[in-house]
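pinging the channel bc i need a second pair of eyes. not urgent but kinda urgent?? the chain im working w is below, pasted from the shared doc
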Amino acid sequence: MAAETRGGSELRDDVTESLAAAFYEELATVGYGRLSLEAVAKRAGAGKAAIYRRWPSKRDMTVALLSGVAITAIAPADTGTLRGDLEHYLRDAVRALTHPLVSRIVPDLLAEAHRDPELGRALVAGVGAPRRDNAVQILRAAIDRGEVPAEVDVELGLDFLAGPLYWRLAVTDLPVSDDYLDRLVTQLIRLLSLPGPPR
């Protein structure tokens, strides 16, 4: 196994994975405001220097780790139909939002982002933007297949995709059944089939 180096070319994957797991557990336990890199390193059984070889600050560590998870957790799938793509995307979203750690982390980070605008901007760029880019691929594919009019309001469509599930799971804490998802997909298809307003 290669030794850790300051240049970062031989950083051990097992140490990185341990630090990431410790970060999520610590973040879920104490919240972003009280999270310390010392506590993360201790929980991972590593030295604080191991963190700084990978991430220069708590904010950088937070954005980097959450970005990677967000991008892979809700990725588009080309099923060949808008309904299939939406069902896949929304089921992935449900799995992500109902994960025990995620359900505790997301509300805290949203609140912290209002108190720390720089963190908020970093999370939007690193987490929000890539997830919206994934959703754009779904809408663009539907336009190319002729399932959605070319003049559809893509920006509103992205909000439609994200809003209902987040509201139900993170705000009202209501369950999401297969029937609910089926009805949601049906309504989304109806909304997305409407042309956008004249520009």
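so The radius of gyration is 19 Å. and The chain has a mean pLDDT of 87. — does that match what u expected or am i reading it wrong
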